[in-house]
Here is the input.
Amino acid sequence: MRQLILIALISPLYLFAQPQKIDSLKLILKSNPKNVETLSAIGLEYSKNNKDSFKFYANYANQLAKTDCEKSYSLNAIGGYLITNSKIDSAIFSYKEAIENAKKCGNKQQQAQILINLSFVYILKGENDTTIELTTNAIKILETIKLNEAIQLLICKALKYKGDAYSRLGQYDKATENLFEAKKQNNNSNLDMEASINGSLGSLYTNKLELDKAITYTKLSAEKFEKLNNIVNAEMQFSNLANEYIEYKKYDSAAYYLKKCEPLLQHINNPTKQAYVNKSWARLFLAKKNLGQALVYYDKAISNYTEAGEDVLLADCFYGKAETYAKQNNYTLAKIFFLKTETLYIENEMPNELSGLYYDLAKLESKKGAYNNAYNYLSKSYDIEDSLRSEKIIEAEKNAEQKYEASLKEATITKQNVEIKTQKQKNFWLITGSVIAALVAFILGLLYKRIRGQKKQIEVQKQEILHNNRNNIQQLISIFNRQSETEGLKENSLANQERLYTLNLLNKLLYESGENNKADIKEYLTQLSSAKEIGSGKLVKIKLDTPNIKLKSNLLKDIGLIVNELTTNAIKYAFKNNENPLIAIKVNYDDAQNINLHIADNGNGLPEGFNLLQERKSFGLEFVNDLVTQHHGTIKAYNNNGTCFDISLKVR
Here is the structure.
């Protein structure tokens, strides 16, 4: 899904220039040729596809602008033009100047309009919290104005951008709430806005991996834009639709919509959009395992992005090309393009993406058998994640300090008020003031102790997570070295990749849980089981029955490794001539505070005379035995319509 996140941005702020609207504005201009508002509106329309005409109207409007209101209109038009030319910081400056001028002249509608335009720029910058703040302020201003069609449309646009921002932050419930509220407010009255909201809903459901809904809303958006002859946005939604079909493995449908983009791109003449379509073709051919064609289209996309100067999107193509070479087992070229991606990620300060890149490089080096290099890249990945966690902890400490300072300031104000009242009724309020001051001091003392305790707890959590990551890496290296002595390089590499994934998944859940080095076993095993099913080509069904139990990372890590080893063995060996292979995993927590695992399959069963304690041919079973022993547990293997393992681990 990494590349789906880069699906063309939400839906448009500026729609494709409409000749009818320009003609109407020019008729208005005839009666007042020096009307700055009308000149700015015409310039803004032309900024979408006719830069020369924009320069004439916008610059003329800027020259004529004398009052604060006139300046707000001309600066707003200039901001729109700057966005179309990817001059984001200059656009922000222009919009902020326009907002100040709109405030001075008291034009609330214009102020709200520019706030909404500015909020979209912050979506482009990835500063979604700022977008939410700006759109919230714009809606508050618009709610103080008498409702009409123009105000209604602005509220819809603000709600849509707010929903887009929540979607990009992963807060899907709030995103859904805002987007459907925008849909309700619009009520099909503005067809362009309706198409735009549907496009946002398509992106939202894509991010939620609800592809049926994603396809439904994206298709509605694309077809509506096409009927409205809105070429820019029709092409964008057709591209999004193609990518959704690629994820759905409906490759003919994906190819159909990518072909629909081709004639539209001839009218747009935009290298960034052409690159996005070429990259989509590359993803399609990669999914169909036509690796040669995938490389051809990645090269085309790289050429387009280079022309457009889009470094971040260029990095995504390098990444895709590296993955394609890796699938060809051309590890040398794969590493070259991974390293090109690394350079762009570092230059553009993209730590999250860089962490994922190092993890993929670790897997690549593991496939080559270069375990020292794999360890180094894995360490880099974990170091970045540790740094990001540290930033989060520092931010939490900062927030705690701010709360303390705010409480202290509030207490000071309260004390001052008490002193003022004391002057009026000295005898009575002297006693009351003393009591209040004592209570405030007591509360502040409790609050201060609580904040210090939280800071210590955060630091302990940080150290435990750092220590756990290092232990995980050392355990992996130990596994690699032991297994390389007993198994072939290819099987060794694949098994180690699965163990890497098992540990990295736990690391991700620990980070997201926000608790003291604990995570939920049901969530962990659910995601792990899903990955194993996908790894088997969905030929093997895994049935999971486990309660929600929070366990410490050390125990949960080893449970994950045990489940990984036993399910891997079952998938590899148990299901010869079995049309409905099934693995059942059951977990319970008994009165003696033991975690009990029951792992069973409906396969061929264990060979006659099998003795688990004497089994040393399989590294995986030997590894499982070691893990059980570390937790003072027991393990039993037997046949019951297939192979069964009963494992009990002490919870200490």
Q: What stands out?
A: The first helix runs from residue 19 to 31. The CA atoms of residues 246 and 473 lie 35 Å apart. The chain is about 75% helix and 5% strand.
